[in-house]
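Tokens in:
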């Protein structure tokens, strides 16, 4: 039996919970701050937290041990993350957290489509139905009559 700490669903649920807190904390945090500067502050905090985690877990590795392909895609991932955060904080500055966050979570739909198109992953009919329902739910939650 898998240990709870090595269970991906646990970590995915924790990620979702922390993402929800991120939206709430960020909405309050950007109230009287430029959204780009708020993203900068958040990035510094994340950098420090990640450095602490690598240090505590002893998972540092020599940068030269990382393949050039991994470097390329990690840098691209970092750039995409930065762009996402900048857009997310700008959206939170301008809109309601309860409407911005569901639209942001359309990333789940995009991941499913991109995973099929670019990674060759396969989704079953029930999986696609879930993707459509997520998309519809996000739009309905964000909709303002």
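Residues out:
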């Amino acid at each position: 039996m898998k240990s709870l700490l090595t269970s991906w669903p646990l970590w995915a649920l924790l990620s979702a919970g922390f993402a929800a807190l991120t939206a709430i904390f960020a909405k309050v945090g950007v109230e009287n701050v430029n959204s780009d500067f708020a993203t900068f502050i958040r990035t510094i905090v994340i950098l420090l937290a990640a450095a602490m985690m690598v240090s505590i877990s002893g998972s540092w590795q020599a940068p030269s041990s990382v393949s050039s392909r991994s470097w390329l895609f990690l840098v691209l991932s970092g750039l995409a993350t930065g762009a996402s955060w900048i857009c997310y904080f700008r959206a939170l500055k301008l809109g309601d957290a309860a409407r911005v966050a569901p639209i942001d979570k359309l990333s789940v739909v995009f991941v499913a489509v991109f995973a099929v198109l670019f990674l060759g992953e396969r989704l079953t009919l029930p999986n696609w139905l879930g993707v459509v329902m997520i998309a519809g739910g996000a739009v309905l939650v964000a909709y303002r009559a």
